[in-house]
């Protein structure tokens, strides 16, 4: 699987985990040069507190387009630290 935005491959892995229709990419599979930490956080009742990244590629920014759970609740441990995408980021084979 590949996560692509603004003609850049943000992440690539054959070992994503699908939860609630979202592909979560292993942390080592992301191209860190495109990821900038965000101050945004949201809470999922069963996964825990999510942190976000703003994606910067080819001179454009996509605020909070990636998220991850740095410290999940027990039921979501398989995706702890994994990164998922939205806001126009395409995930494809």
CATH class: Mainly Beta
Count of DSSP E strands? 9
Kindly identify the CATH topology: Metal Binding Protein, Guanine Nucleotide Exchange Factor, Chain A
The value of Rg in angstroms is 12 Å
- Mean of residue pLDDT? 97
Largest sheet: 4 strands, antiparallel
Kindly report the spatial arrangement of strands forming the biggest sheet: 5-6-7-8
Q: Any low-confidence stretches, pLDDT <50, length ≥5?
A: none
For this structure, the quaternary state is single chain
SS summary, helix count = 0
Shape annotation = globular
Helix content range of the residues, please?
under 10%
- Give the N-terminus to C-terminus distance in angstroms: 4 Å
Question: Could you state the CATH homologous superfamily?
Answer: Domain of unknown function (DUF427)
Give me the CATH architecture, please. Beta Complex
């Amino acid at each position: 699987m590949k996560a692509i935005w603004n003609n850049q491959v943000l992440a690539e892995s054959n070992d994503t985990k699908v939860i609630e229709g979202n592909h979560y990419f292993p942390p080592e599979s992301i191209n860190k040069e495109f990821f900038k930490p965000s101050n945004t956080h949201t809470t999922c009742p069963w996964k825990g507190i999510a942190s976000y990244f703003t994606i910067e590629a080819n001179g454009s920014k996509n605020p909070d387009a990636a998220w991850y759970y740095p410290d999940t609740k027990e039921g979501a441990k398989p995706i702890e630290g994994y990164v998922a995408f939205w806001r126009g980021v395409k995930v494809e084979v």
